[in-house]
Amino acid sequence: MADELIESILNESRSFPPSKEFSDQANINEAKAEEMRKLAADDHIKYWAKLANEELHWSRPFSNTLDDSKAPNYEWFNDGEINASYNSLDVNVSKNPHKTAIIFEKEDGKSESITYKELLLKTSQFANGLKKIGVEPMDRVVIYMPMCPEAVIAMQACARIGAIHSVVFGGFSSNALKDRIEDAQSKIVITADGAFRGGGVIPLKQATDEAVSQSSFKVNNVVVFKRTGENVNFNKGTDIWWEDLVADCDLVCEPKPLNAEHPLFILYTSGSTGKPKGIQHATAGYILHAKTTFSWIFDIKNDDVFWCTADVGWITGHTYVAYGPLLSGATILIYEGAPTYPDVGRFWSICEKHSVTIFYTAPTAIRALMKHGDEIPANYDLSKLRLLGTVGEPINPEAWIWYHKVIGGEHCPIVDTWWQTETGGAMISPLPGITNTKPGSCTTAIPGIDIDIVNESGEPVDEPNQGGYLVIKKPWPSMLRTIWGDNQRYIDTYWEKFDGKYYVAGDSAYRDEDDCHWIMGRIDDVLNVSGHRLGTMEVESALVANEKVAEAAVVGRPHEVKGESIFAFVVTKGNRPTGNDAKTTQEELREWVASQVGSIAKPDEIRFSDNLPKTRSGKIMRRLLRAIARQEEITQDISTLEDESIVKQLQGEE
Ligand code: PRX
Q1: What is the pTM of this model?
Q2: Domain assignment present for 627
Q3: Ligand 1 pocket, mutate which of 360, 420, 444 (most atoms under 8 A from CB)
């Protein structure tokens, strides 16, 4: 696309109204949105109660909408009973059993489809299998799977019987898997023999074996789905092939009515301190938000084919692959492999092949594919697309405009959805039929969600374009309930800053004169690498666990494609490596971090110094390190440094 065109659009800071054609058919039009906003403003409780009654099927109706007696441990609909899998599968089977639920695109280019009826049968059968090996309500089940329908089946099966799933992204290392098994105290792990990715195979079973053998918590059973057919180690006594487990299981499994507050899942995410935290979500509130936002934001219709590229190992894959779409009876696409396999046109070829109508991905993917030029998508018929979405990190206006013009053919609204693992579903997003979008802004909160930007003292920042803390002012049904096993950490992390008055998201943001919100980034030591959250401390802990490393400090640096890249400053034991020795040690440490956490945590750059810059009181001067990593001018006072010459080493000059 011509640079002048981008320039002119950016200079105008243009907003993009939805086309009349789109607005006319949208699920949420002006009148509907107005009615919803009014009800939510007049009576927040009534608003959510009405939705919960209209949208969900209850085994026992609730009368208690919000219980704030244990705030900030809010509870929703807590005298009602419900089942998430029943709401996802049985309800839709009764409407249209033969509708396609999942189109599965394999990395080798073959594909298959599963109807709602088949999905219900497979889920029920697997749920019976889980029961057979002793899984009971409240038991935790770790799922470490490739992207395939069975990952969704495993999640739905847990939900059906009241087990709490904890999905671990298949890109995490055995060590990270072990930490999560231990923290969740999971007796069962569901995995596969391997995952096809980028033309190769990721040895998931091998990683599971390592994790299970090193775990201080005893795992009773490992269920292994045969995906690749590779030869894998098989531990008699603990391991069971998925197919053998279900072979003699009934195809009917009654969904268990569960209290609305019954934990649906735990999903680990990074914080600024300590180990990843297990974000715990409750059944009814979470599925309510997943279902409603899916319909409002993605404007889903009966004949849409929805593709969210996120892995089920992340919250996006939970809410907009495994739950939201199925709760809405939609057809989703699941793609198993790498976006660039066998070539960089793969995403667009899948859109063409399966007539994808709604496409949802991360800005990193858009930027990476944009680099290959407009000619690649031009080779494919993308005319079926009618709505595009982004999530996970701020999208730069250039990428937004490319997405709009080259992928969306200028007729697809773009929904830039802001949310978090903790919020359960999208919170700030355009409603595609009515919102004037602006490249780079996630616009305004959805109806029923009350957000603000406040200053250090918690007062609203009313001036436009002034940054502050992004907060959520009222509890909402899909909010996290706690951090698994550490309620104090929940209170301290999200509520302490403003004395329990607001939920603190951890992002800074500003609002412009049109009431559009712009996310500026994290206010804590959390990085956002390719749309994935990573604590600097997680990478630092991994580095110092290496025998060669004495000290490490990790900072983020803006990156053209990944949004942020990881920059590590390392002090080794013994002499500082230089020349070839430095190169080898850097590579060794990068691999080491990958083995400790996962490839996504590999530092992009590692620089060695004799010492880290510290104040006289011993605090690492992170701001200085950030400036050095970003090659910015140093404005910090370095006279307090014990050894000023260190700066030159850190800058890579010595
Ligand atoms: O910093 C925000 C960024 O991602 C963080 C949440 O990360 P995670 O829990 O992994 O969930 C990501 C997928 C929902 C937020 O605190 N973030 C998420 N969406 C956006 C975003 N930043 C800017 N724009 C977004 N649309």
Answers
A1: 0.95
A2: yes
A3: 420
